[in-house]
Write a structure and sequence with these properties.
Elements lengths: L3 E5 L6 H8 L6 E4 L8 E7 L2 E7 L13 H12 L2 E7 L6 H12 L3 E7 L6 H5 L10 E3 L8 H38 L13 E6 L6 H10 L16 E7 L2 E7 L18 H10 L2 E7 L6 H13 L2 E7 L6 H14 L7 E4 L8 H16 L4 H14 L4 E2 L2 E2 L1 E9 L4 E7 L6 H15 L7 E6 L2
Parallel strand pairs: 1-4, 1-5, 5-6, 6-7, 8-10, 8-11, 11-12, 12-13, 17-18
Antiparallel strand pairs: 2-3, 3-4, 9-10, 14-15, 16-17
The structure holds guanosine-5'-diphosphate (2 copies).
Length: 460
């Protein structure tokens, strides 16, 4: 699980500036979910070696009645979903009534909350910030978001304890997982099917925007199979883990749609939660993205896809609500999907109707294939042979009069598969040749449903 940081504070204190700074790394991904979650912006960040999810909350200006009006609702949600709340105040502007209103709310929360005084550049920070101690939220940290000052120290202080706590929790959850498996295998002993439970279950996250049919699909999948409903305590942003078997294989469905309700789900949290989805992706082996055939691919679908891609997880796409469409419309939708989803050509697309059950069974063929592809063990000899064949079929280009030469390949890891290629001038290889190599490996190794990462290293 990644720690979740929410940035709250009144408008203009520098939340977006800090958000942008935190997510400005190369592999950060930012998604807006307009309409769905109004002002909120999400980023998966890797700042100075710290990995976390950051949420910009738009802003509470404190004029709301008891901060509980519509406008502040999203900030309240973000606070509820976060591990850490960074409460930004403006050191130059000094303390305002709005700051006090926000502090009153935060003091009532059982959250790790830190007061962060921004815009401390060019002023005597200590004397300007002293008044914020009156917020009664403890220490006041100084930063200058626009200049990137104080941020690493702040992260160190705020993140370290949470990371430690989360990894302890993760261990507990891992044990729970094992218990789930135990529970299930015991149950199944009566069938004498022990053999099938030797492998770890595949964790399948079912994700997608609201109303695309996730719940219908989950119910359809579960309805056909035996289910153990497992009510787990936890926070509202957690998905429910549902163990199941299908054709003697074990799976754990990660249900982001809330099909199986927790005992105590607070009403405040919406049915759809971006953070829940991000964590589900992170914790899965295979992501099943459900989209609505009738709505086409929206920007929100693309944001979710981006997060799935960024995590390197295996991916299967279910185009749902494929029932009752005439052939002309189906063709049009397929053309549109090809155009918009060209960048995930490694993933299998299924046209299904969760409502009628059409095509649902076949999804699992692709899920299995994707998982096997992602975890396949490939020998160095094989990787090297394929590299030689690729090079023989189509030579790498000349760069500054010298031919790029690939010399050696070996496996760099699994899930997703990583291939490390050593050679001369490999950093000058054009993207087109990298793509060629990737596709060559994909075909030769019959890898489907998972991205392949190729790393290039200069020299032998
Ligand atoms: P938000 O409304 O809380 O998201 O605030 P913004 O990030 O949009 O920032 C509001 C204004 O404060 C902008 O004009 C920023 O350039 C400015 N600002 C943000 N951080 C700093 C800082 O560290 N120092 C100074 N001097 N100005 C800043
Ligand atoms: P979720 O928010 O993603 O969990 O979506 P739901 O499963 O609640 O479905 C939203 C709506 O779409 C419901 O009215 C469903 O009955 C409908 N729906 C779901 N799957 C299908 C399908 O395959 N075909 C059609 N026509 N409607 C569907």
């Amino acid at each position: 699980m990644l720690p979740v940081i929410a940035l709250v504070g009144r408008p203009n204190v520098g939340k977006s500036t800090l958000f942008n700074r935190l997510t400005r790394t190369r592999d950060a991904l930012v998604a807006d979910f307009p309409g769905l979650t109004r002002d909120r912006k999400y980023g998966q960040a890797n700042y100075d070696g710290y990995e976390f999810i950051v949420v910009d909350t738009g802003g509470i200006d404190g004029s709301e009645e008891g901060i509980e009006t519509e406008m502040a609702e999203q900030s309240l949600l973000a606070i509820e979903e976060a591990d850490i709340v960074l409460f930004l105040v403006d050191a130059r502007a000094g303390m305002t009534v709005a700051d006090q209103a926000i502090a009153n709310h935060l003091r009532k929360q059982e959250k790790k909350c830190f007061v962060v005084a921004n815009k401390t550049d060019g002023i005597d920070a200590d004397s300007y910030c002293a008044e914020f101690f009156q917020l009664s939220l403890g220490e006041v940290y100084h930063i200058a978001a626009a200049h990137g000052r104080g941020i690493t120290q702040l992260l160190e202080i705020t993140l370290q304890p949470v990371i430690a706590e989360l990894s302890a929790e993760n261990e507990a959850v891992a044990n729970d997982d094992e218990q789930l498996v135990d529970l299930y295998s015991e149950d199944d002993e009566t069938d004498g099917e022990q053999q099938a439970f030797a492998d770890k279950p595949v964790k399948l996250a079912i994700i997608g925007r609201p109303n695309v049919g996730k719940s219908t699909l989950t119910n359809r999948i579960l309805g056909e199979e035996r289910v153990i409903v497992y009510d787990m305590p936890g926070t509202t942003r957690d998905s429910i883990y549902i163990p199941m078997t299908r054709n003697d294989k074990e799976y754990i469905l990660i249900d982001t749609a809330g099909v199986r309700k927790r005992k105590k789900v607070s009403d405040v949290v919406e049915k759809f939660s971006v953070i829940k989805t991000l964590q589900a992706i992170e914790d899965s082996n295979v992501v099943l993205l459900v989209v609505d055939a009738r709505e086409g691919i929206s920007d929100q679908d693309l944001s979710l896809l981006g997060f799935a891609l960024n995590s390197g997880r295996s991916l299967v796409v279910a185009v749902n609500k494929w029932d009752g469409l005439d052939d002309y419309v189906k063709e049009r939708i397929k053309t549109e999907l090809d155009r918009r989803l060209g960048f995930i050509d490694f993933a299998r697309l299924h046209f299904i109707s969760a409502l009628h059950g059409t095509g649902v069974g076949h999804l699992f063929e692709s899920v299995d294939e994707a998982y096997e592809s992602a975890t396949k063990r490939i020998s160095t000899a094989m990787l090297r042979r394929i590299m030689d064949m690729a090079q023989a079929d189509h030579q790498p280009p000349l760069v500054r009069g010298r031919r790029v030469k690939l010399k050696y390949a070996h496996a760099g890891g699994y899930n997703p598969p990583r291939i490390v290629i050593h050679g001369n001038q490999v950093h000058d290889l054009p993207d087109s040749y990298k793509r060629y190599l990737m596709n060559y490996y994909r075909k030769a190794l019959k890898i489907m449903g998972t991205p392949i990462k190729i790393e290039f290293r200069e020299g032998d």
